Amino acid sequence: SWFRRFGSWKIERDSRFKKVDDKDTARFESILDSRNNPSSVLYQKTENLSAYNTDWLRKYKGEAPVVLKPKQTQEVSALLEYCNANNIAVCVQGGNTGLVGGSVPVFDEVIINLSRMNNILSFDEQSGILQCEAGVILENADKYLREKYTFIYPLDLGAKGSCQIGGNISTNAGGLRLLRYFVYFFHSLVSSLPPFLVFLSPLWFFFFFFLKSINHKYKRYGNLHGNVMGLEVVLANGNVLNLQSNNIKDNTGYDLKHLFIGSEGTLGVITKASVLCMKEPTSYNLLFLALPSFANALKVKLLAKRVLNEIISAIEFADFQSLKFPLTYLHNRCSFPLEGKYTDYPFYMLIETSGSNDTHDKEKLTQLIETLFNEKLISAGTIAQDMGQFRSIWTLREGIGPGIGESKRACYKYDVSLPLYQMYDVVENCRVRVEEMLGHDTIKRGEIDVVGYGHLGDGNLHLNVVTPTFASKYENVLEPWIYDQCSYYRGSISAEHGLGRMKGNMIHYNKSALAVNLMKNFKQLLDPKGILNPYKLKVSYP
Amino acid sequence: SWFRRFGSWKIERDSRFKKVDDKDTARFESILDSRNNPSSVLYQKTENLSAYNTDWLRKYKGEAPVVLKPKQTQEVSALLEYCNANNIAVCVQGGNTGLVGGSVPVFDEVIINLSRMNNILSFDEQSGILQCEAGVILENADKYLREKYTFIYPLDLGAKGSCQIGGNISTNAGGLRLLRYFVYFFHSLVSSLPPFLVFLSPLWFFFFFFLKSINHKYKRYGNLHGNVMGLEVVLANGNVLNLQSNNIKDNTGYDLKHLFIGSEGTLGVITKASVLCMKEPTSYNLLFLALPSFANALKVKLLAKRVLNEIISAIEFADFQSLKFPLTYLHNRCSFPLEGKYTDYPFYMLIETSGSNDTHDKEKLTQLIETLFNEKLISAGTIAQDMGQFRSIWTLREGIGPGIGESKRACYKYDVSLPLYQMYDVVENCRVRVEEMLGHDTIKRGEIDVVGYGHLGDGNLHLNVVTPTFASKYENVLEPWIYDQCSYYRGSISAEHGLGRMKGNMIHYNKSALAVNLMKNFKQLLDPKGILNPYKLKVSYP
Ligand SMILES: Cc1cc2nc3c(=O)[nH]c(=O)nc-3n(C[C@H](O)[C@H](O)[C@H](O)COP(=O)(O)OP(=O)(O)OC[C@H]3O[C@@H](n4cnc5c(N)ncnc54)[C@H](O)[C@@H]3O)c2cc1C
Ligand SMILES: Cc1cc2nc3c(=O)[nH]c(=O)nc-3n(C[C@H](O)[C@H](O)[C@H](O)COP(=O)(O)OP(=O)(O)OC[C@H]3O[C@@H](n4cnc5c(N)ncnc54)[C@H](O)[C@@H]3O)c2cc1C
Predict the structure, then answer these.
(1) In whole angstroms, what separates CA A147 from the centre of its chain?
(2) How far away is chain A from the Cα of B14, in angstroms, using its nearest Cα?
(3) Is B515 on the interface with A (CB under 8 A)?
(4) Interface touch B251/A226, C-beta < 8 Å
(5) Contacts of residue B256 in chain A, CB cutoff 8 Å?
(6) What Rg do the C-alpha atoms of chain A give, in angstroms?
(7) What is the ipTM of this complex?
(8) Which residues line ligand 1 (CB under 6 A)?
(9) Mind spelling out the 3-state secondary structure of B383-394?
(10) In terms of DSSP bridges, do strands B110-113 and B90-93 run parallel, antiparallel, or are they unpaired?
(11) Per the CB < 8 Å rule, is B496 touching A355?
């Protein structure tokens, strides 16, 4: 099947955890006052809970007998206190858009779903700090800021219409700010379908790739560790840990909130957040460049950083092998923006700027282009003249994933961090390995494509290996070889999606035994019975 | 004396800690191979260790019998392993520029001083990540980046010539990037004195204020939690925790490094760091504005954020009461940049920009000024025409502290975070309180001055109360009243310097019992015997 490529590790249900019985559900109903809040407790028996039990990729399915939808921190607290006292395992769920199986139960964990905790609490235009409940949908936060304050939320990703602030923080989501127009353009496609129907549509994987890929942007607005100013977290025993903050600066004791950022629901349930937001830029521009080599792409990046400095908002690259897919399989949507054919040049780059003065930004871009031509770093290039061209170029870049999907072939996808100097070596090493192990003409004959694209801005490579089918002969060539390469070059096997269930047993590729042991200690301290998101992130159960 | 204003809490030596004897020092000598490294072990008996035992403010004095200067992580590890096994308390020391007494022993703790671990290990121009040992002096890191790569280090502060990367991270230092020219201008004053002589000079307190105050800048480059990509930390038991990283993105497990950022040497000794650095800007501009009210300053800030957006690098304010001091006591150095007198207007603002194109930046500034005049938000204003004027205006703003120093009166200084809407209320409340408690004409008669200035960019207020002398009648009026105000408005009693010894018992103003208890647990886990920086940060000993 299509999902085999993700691999998995064997897990058995932990018998220490109690199966939920009528006494438990009666207590849940009373805590959530379900008589007056009919949608606050949902049962597998009486309702179809498959939307809650199935992850976005439809790869992982759980069997939660009950879904709990608290409306307030105090309810989350009471639920956890009860579950902890009674050894009931809990799966924490935000928008359920996570890509590593963290947001659905593995067995019969009860789901605590945050979607009813969706109030925006305050925005302080002066400090730029937004305070909201964890269940606020990312797009709603962003819309609220844009429409009322011409501010933007410091994060943006393809799943913005469904994912939640709390989920983003729990996964330390790395999708970065992107231009308004484009988001709205594509997002409108998906938002025309009812939320949980999106992935039931035959088009879902197309949307998935399309949306998923438009989010990675150059590190301009920093990461969530720099932007989250405060959190409220309910611990496993029901204690409410208030780390909320109105302040940008506060140096009084250890900064505990960071432990919860990226902890994937295994250390506590995030119920509120304070997030530092930015003034909205008003001008967007886009450059598309053809280059003779990856080495030149790195040089262009440095020059761009010098000339465009403060206005850069994305630096992307793709090899010509990548562009084959959108141009072949999405040719009614995607076109090649330069004279000639995409095969004329080996490498391409996109450089996006966003700023507060369009004339200035265009002048800086022109200056950059001149320098690039003079220094013979690029072979060809174009600058988007209007929003139509702007979108069209992004559509090409963002069509790589969907194009591969449309090819109806199998695709092994790896989202990794690598030092930039070695980044493309790994793609080339991979080609060599494929030819050595699977026949030296497999690539030439077009049986296998090894394509590399990604984010030069933050060293995040998408290595995609497109094969005729999913088969262990391919998988064995690629895994764990690719993880070993990441380890060898001191990259990361998970740049942004986390470990969750999918890579829950792979932490040793990136972290030392001592570090993992410390993590275990923290888990033990905060969730001694291990009720929070068990079976995920291997440190989560000793 | 001049230092009384800092207050202090009573501490007794913990008798569990062993007094260092000859056996111990023999072991230290062997670990550090002191025969071949003559300056690696220094004794109170044979050398004058007062520079190591006295803090920058000369407020706190310790009695370390021995100073240990390791050159390598493995040496730090061996030292700590031994100290831990033998209950020897340790004071971790970087550049010894901390302002809350954290960097010097309280009693006879041995000092582990990082200054010999001063190697820059690597810089990756592509990712922007600098890897270095913790003892590298901030200014050296910055110079290295500028000269070799036209990059800058993401932090800058007045103490840059002495403070260390490791010390900055341990205190989560908040001084932000500032313009090149200015730093070099003032810094050269101080660097003309040998390091430890600076504070022995009768001018030291002048330098202190002057240098100290030029560092607070608008939050443009984010905070250290966003910029530190990796750390190497030696734990109390000597274990080396390797959290170094080449990657900007890595989501594999809990992000442990953040626990050490801002932990003031109580959880481990930072020995190496990976820090994300920025391309150097090439254009700097400065605006000086006079305003009729603080409310207008807040409006100007919002407009500036819209028009200048990505190029803003500092937004400062000062009331006219503040300017009195540099203009009166440093009049040969400071002048008022507008027509008329400083008393003509109640409030002033400085807006600094830095970018990559001077023409563009000036155009944006002109546009802002026009808008401000049209909307009648400002009463007067000027834009620095050259580097001379640029420096001169900063000299006025940065002369507030030194001016107060020169007045030879006493000054109670508070460095706090407050929500911007309430920020100036606290200054005014303070005036009311002073008049109520000390006589309603004390301020009018010029006996007491209550002045407010600080960083509109990040909500950091400097509230200074200038009194004839240091006396408990003044102190009692101000403390704990000011800390209560911070608590009441949910600000922070320590915006950036930390708690250290000075405010080691004040964490409850900002953090809940549950949070402090968790901190205690983390301390217990990482340093069960409490040997690291005992007596500081109250959570550090249960
Ligand atoms: C189209 C698409 C595009 C994407 N693009 C990106 C991208 O660019 N960058 C990126 O990093 N990721 C991306 N992702 C994956 C990303 O992890 C999620 O979109 C998002 O961050 C998860 O938010 P969520 O509310 O859906 O959380 P969920 O999927 O519900 O949960 C994710 C994890 O967080 C935990 N969790 C959720 N809420 C809480 C809470 N309140 N308290 C504690 N734990 C909680 C869950 O237990 C689970 O382990 C994308 C996913 C999709 C479907
Ligand atoms: C003129 C001047 C201007 C300043 N400006 C600012 C400013 O703008 N913003 C600001 O935030 N602060 C400022 N400070 C104070 C600030 O805390 C320090 O300048 C700096 O961050 C401390 O670095 P250091 O190497 O001198 O550390 P030290 O003073 O030696 O130590 C500070 C604390 O960190 C611990 N520590 C030091 N090194 C290590 C290590 N390697 N591992 C573990 N713990 C360690 C010490 O035990 C101590 O608790 C200023 C100080 C001065 C004198």
Answers:
(1) 25
(2) 21
(3) yes
(4) no
(5) 259, 515, 518-519
(6) 24
(7) 0.90
(8) A 56, 92-99, 102-103, 114, 134, 157-159, 163-164, 166-168, 170-171, 173-175, 208, 211-212, 215-216, 264-265, 269-270, 496-497, 500, 533
(9) ECCCHHHHHHHH
(10) parallel
(11) no
- Residue A133 region by backbone torsions, left for phi larger than 0, else alpha for psi between -120 and 50, else beta: beta
Cβ of B351 less than 6 Å from ligand 2:
no
Task: Phi first, then psi: give them for residue B274, nearest 5 degrees.
Answer: -115, 120
Identify which of A243, A279, A511 has the shortest CB distance to residue B252: A511
Rounded CA gap, B492 and A245, in Å?
A: 9
Q: Which residue has the tokens 């025309």?
A: A192
Between the CA of B46 and the centroid of ligand 2 the distance, in Å, is 28
Q: How many residues does chain A have?
A: 542
Query: Token pair 């330390």 is at which residue?
Result: A172
Quote the CA–CA distance of B416 and B460 in Å, as a whole number.
6
Report the chain A residue with the minimal C-alpha distance to residue B498: A251
- In A283-302, the residues whose Cβ lies within 8 Å of chain B are 298, 301-302
Give SS3 for B184.
helix
For residue B445, the one-letter residue type is: R
Tens-digit pLDDT profile for chain A (542 aa)?
Answer: 222 233 455 788 999 999 999 999 999 999 999 999 989 999 998 889 999 999 987 888 999 999 999 999 999 999 999 999 999 999 999 999 998 899 999 999 999 999 999 999 999 999 999 999 999 999 999 999 999 999 999 888 778 899 999 999 999 987 544 332 333 333 333 333 333 433 333 344 444 444 433 333 333 456 889 899 999 999 999 999 999 998 888 888 999 999 999 999 999 999 999 999 988 999 999 999 999 999 999 999 999 999 999 999 889 999 999 999 999 999 898 999 999 999 999 999 999 999 999 999 999 999 999 999 999 999 999 999 998 999 899 889 989 988 998 998 998 888 899 999 999 999 999 999 999 999 989 999 999 999 999 888 888 999 999 999 989 999 899 988 999 999 899 999 988 888 888 777 788 888 889 999 999 999 999 999 999 999 988 774 33
**B404 with B466: CB under 8 angstroms?**
yes
Q: How many CA atoms lie within 13 A of B455 on its CB side?
A: 28
CA distance A471 to B527: 50
Instruction: Find, in chain A, the residue whose alpha carbon is nearest to that of B249.
Output: A495
CA A284 to chain centre: 23
Contact B52/B96 with Cβ under 8 angstroms? yes
Encoded amino acid at A174, one letter = G
Q: From CA B209, how far away is CA B159, in angstroms rounded? A: 11
CA of A305 to the centre of ligand 1 (A): 31
All residues at 6 or more sequence positions from B49 whose CB lies less than 8 Å from its CB, including other chains: B42, B43, B64, B67, B111
The beta strands (E) that lie in B184-329 are given as 228-234, 240-243, 269-276, 278-279, 283-291, 312-319
Residue type, position B64, single letter: A
> Of B222, B245, B262, which is closest to A254 when you measure between CB atoms?
B262
Q: Is A303 an 8 Å CB contact of chain B?
A: no
Residue from A241, A285, A310 whose CB has the most chain B CBs within 10 Å, to mutate = A310
Taken in order of first residue, the domains within chain A and their CATH numbers are: 4-113 (3.30.43.10), 120-279 (3.30.465.10), 283-402 (3.30.70.2190), 409-488 (3.30.70.2740)
Q: What share of chain A is helix, strand, coil (3-state, %, to 5)?
A: 40, 20, 40
CA dist A305 and A281 (Å) reads: 18
Ligand 1 centroid, distance to A95 Cα (angstroms): 7
| Chain B contact present for A154, CB below 8 A | no
The answer to whether residues A131 and A87 touch, using CB atoms and an 8 Å cutoff, is: no
Query: Distance between CA atoms of A101 and A500, rounded to whole angstroms?
Result: 6
